[in-house]
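Shipment paperwork, digital attachment
Item: protein structure file
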Amino acid sequence: MPKRILIIDDDADIVEAMRMVLEANDFEISTAFTGAEGLEKVKQVRPDLIILDVMMEDDTAGFRVSWSLRNRDPHSEYAEYRDIPLLMISAVSEMKGFRFDPRRDGDYLPVNEFLSKPVMPLDLIEKVDALLSRE
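Attachment content:
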């Protein structure tokens, strides 16, 4: 059975580009275009991996999604999804000057990996494969 990936990003062109690359590598893709829609899709799809943008309906929507999913409260509505790998892909570094490293900024940025847009297809596949092999 192919691994399921949920892409949460408001840029339809980027979503389609990632979808084409990932489907060509035998992944099953679902999409959401806002943070709220993404959180609902997590419950419906139960993905093996989430690719998440930062700036969607506002500049911090992706951060709020990651914080919701990584909430340590055992009664959180997302508790059962806490361990799904998160790959954050964003132009926030270029547009806002923020630099993130999940190993250094793990509390502030609770994701497994971060890539700056634009993302090269091979870089995307390498990160996705690495994250899914950790399961």
